[in-house]
Design goal:
By secondary structure, the protein is an alpha+beta fold. It is about 50% helix and about 15% strand. It has a six-stranded antiparallel beta sheet, sandwiched between helices. The protein has a three-stranded antiparallel beta sheet with strand order 7-8-11. A two-stranded antiparallel sheet has the order 9-10.
Length: about 350
């Protein structure tokens, strides 16, 4: 009877913890019940070997993505030590997408190498990557999600880091890159039937500016899915020179669109145009771009989404573009006020 009561209370505690985590850790994951026999001998051996340094393996719980509507290509588990502290994070590709975890791990390592010792120190890379039964797995240190207050308090440091990433990796777009990253996406977007006429006219304007070389786009390293759920607290043994680490680098572009990361993160952090304006101005200086022409970069991103619907994060692309454009226009207006 006592054991039954204890088990009931333990389950209720997990539910309470799960929903508390959902509220305070926006974009994070919540803990479900443990699974048994979820790992092959190869993965179990790797977990046991890594956990020897932490006193041994305790409970193992599965993490489930909250509110995610797309197809999830990974399974995720958290491994606790014997004292009950979350210690490592295990990611498994699913058989349908066997290399997803390996690609993400390689991208993280590549991002750290390109960013250098300082700026790349906050890129979380796995402790081990392996292959088991035809699918890849990766083991990383466990990093706590950040609550709303921590995200608000450190947003300036994250945005400053993002500006330095752009400054450190910016390059002029090569002719073939200009064609694939800007001309083709802009052309596709200009023919998108659901786009309002006023926005279509602006997209046509961007194409003219590009072809006449009055707008010369530049490229820099892009995370491609930068939101507050991918900004975590560093693990205790981390050598990060920042009070955060960045995870989920599977969409990395070494020569990508810096404006995409900035606008996507700013919207997710719910920054006002006044708060975003100083950072957008810095990005404009790095990209050698007039603030009024920043929308060309935004159009290019949405053109790429249109050409690659499997990676498009927006169910209603035209509506999302209009909202982002309005947000960007208000921010540019604030920059103009700063320059007066």
């Amino acid at each position: 009877m006592i054991r039954a009561i204890f088990y009931f209370l333990r389950i209720k505690t997990k539910y309470v913890f799960s929903y508390t985590l959902k509220f305070w850790r926006p974009g994070a994951y919540f803990i479900t019940f443990p699974e048994t026999g979820q790992f092959t001998p190869i993965i179990s051996e790797a977990i046991s070997r890594i956990m020897q340094s932490y006193g041994g393996v305790g409970e193992i719980e599965q993490f489930v993505r909250r509110g995610y509507e797309g197809e999830d290509t990974q399974k995720r588990y958290i491994v606790f030590n014997l004292a009950g502290s979350p210690t490592i994070f295990v990611m498994l590709s699913i058989p349908k997408h066997p290399i997803t975890v390996r690609v993400a791990a390689d991208c993280a390592i590549s991002a750290r190498e390109h960013l250098g010792a300082h700026h790349g120190s906050c890129v979380l890379i796995p402790l081990e990557v392996g292959l088991s039964d035809g699918v890849y797995f990766a083991i990383s240190p466990y990093c706590y999600p950040r609550n709303r207050w921590e995200i608000y308090r450190q947003r300036e440091q994250v945005l400053t880091w993002l500006s330095e990433v752009a400054r450190h990796t910016v390059v002029d777009s090569l002719p073939e890159e200009t064609e694939s990253e800007f001309e083709h996406p802009l052309l596709a977007l200009s023919q998108y039937s659901q786009l309002p006429k006023a926005v279509k006219a602006l997209v046509q304007e961007a194409l003219v500016e590009l072809k006449t070389k009055r707008w010369r786009p530049r490229l820099s390293l892009m995370h491609n899915d930068l939101h507050r759920g991918n900004i975590l607290s560093p693990p205790p043994e981390s050598k990060s020179l920042y009070p955060f680490v960045i995870v989920d680098w599977g969409g990395l572009r070494l020569a990508g669109n810096a404006i995409n990361d900035l606008i996507h993160l700013a919207q997710d952090l719910k920054l006002s145009p006044s708060q975003l304006a100083p950072y957008l101005k810095i990005h404009c200086e790095i990209l050698k771009c007039n603030p009024t022409n920043v929308k060309y970069y935004l159009f290019s991103v949405f053109g790429i989404f249109l050409l690659n619907p499997e990676i498009c994060p927006y169910a209603e692309l035209a509506i999302a573009l209009s909202k982002s454009l309005d947000y960007l226009d208000l921010t540019v207006a604030k920059i103009m006020e700063m320059n007066v």
